[in-house]
Design a protein that fits this description.
mainly alpha; ABC transporter involved in vitamin B12 uptake, BtuC; 304 residues; two-stranded antiparallel sheet
Length: 304
């Protein structure tokens, strides 16, 4: 394969590998925001769940128990956010920032003994056994959590349109007054959606510490939880578009390593900044209120 082809294949493979955490965190935030609540604390949820997942796998000897621990720890932190935000005069944004600081602080403190040990890793789906090119075989090594994320995106997209649960979440997110008039517990739905969103985001943390890069350290997340909030806006609150957006961000994050693999080492760190530049571009592009609220749950624009 030519160097250009190697880069393209590496970026495509990296889009799945790097984009898997983005996918789970954005799906979790999409579910939360569909109910009319914003959780800016997903960065803390992601870091804490990555630490908890690594600890669970290390102590139990099972990567899948680590995945369960990551999801449950993410749900625990997110439920705290949901419960506190249901109180009068509590602001979602301020609480989200507090949750981010709490999650990262707890992860850094509790995770210090886990920096050196090795934990069991999640397996990869070897879809490229038939390929003779090493780069193609590597690109077709798929994180086993990625197909789960794809199925989850499809299920969420279908559920929002065709199930009573999806209708309740959308109704609460679009008009809390209408939901209350029908006897629906707005706080109950939002707490449940926020908790479930935290569990889904926690699976992204497990992907970080148990697959790629596959270890625990304090700089593991690199702001992916915060980027996911912009990603949901970019995806217009659609689970299926979250899948596509996660692959775009994953490909952007894989560009630097792909170029380095073919000997392009100049401006390496500049290429690593592409996901952050892309996030900034999305925020600037959506700064117009008319664009930003297109497709958004109406309750996100209500001052609470």
């Amino acid at each position: 394969m030519t160097p250009a082809a190697d880069v393209i294949v590496a970026v495509l493979g990296g889009a799945v590998r790097v984009g898997t955490p983005f996918l789970f965190v954005s799906l979790g935030e999409c579910l939360t925001e569909k109910s009319g609540r914003i959780n800016l604390g997903l960065e803390g949820v992601l870091v804490f769940s990555a630490m908890a997942g690594f600890a669970g796998a290390y102590l139990s000897g099972s990567a899948w128990l680590g995945v369960l621990a990551a999801g449950c720890s993410g749900a625990l932190l997110a439920s705290l956010h949901g419960l506190v935000c249901s109180l009068p005069r509590v602001n979602d944004i301020a609480m989200g920032i507090a949750l981010m600081l709490l999650g990262t602080g707890l992860a850094f403190y509790l995770g210090k003994p886990l920096i050196q040990p090795q934990a069991p890793q999640l397996p990869a789906l070897e879809l490229g056994r038939w390929a003779s090119a090493p780069t193609l075989r590597e690109a077709l090594r798929i994180n086993v959590l990625f197909p789960i994320g794809v199925a989850l995106a499809l299920a969420m997209g279908w559920a929002f349109m065709h199930t009573r649960w999806g209708l309740l979440v959308r109704m609460v997110g679009d008009s809390s007054d209408a939901a209350r008039a029908l006897g629906t517990s707005v706080n109950g739905v939002r707490i449940a959606a926020t908790t479930a969103g935290g569990f889904i985001a926690g699976l992204g943390g497990a992907s970080l510490s148990l697959y790629y890069p596959g270890s625990w350290n304090e700089g593991l997340s690199s702001g992916q939880g915060l980027i996911a909030v912009a990603l949901v806006i970019f995806a217009r609150w659609s689970p299926l578009r979250c899948l596509l957006a996660a692959l775009v961000f994953g490909g952007a994050g894989a560009l630097g390593p792909a170029l380095q693999s073919v000997g392009v080492t100049g401006d390496y760190y500049l290429f690593n900044a592409v996901p952050y530049a892309l996030t900034l571009a999305i925020l600037v592009w959506t700064c117009s209120p008319r664009r930003a609220l297109k497709g958004a749950p109406q309750e996100l624009g209500v001052a609470r």
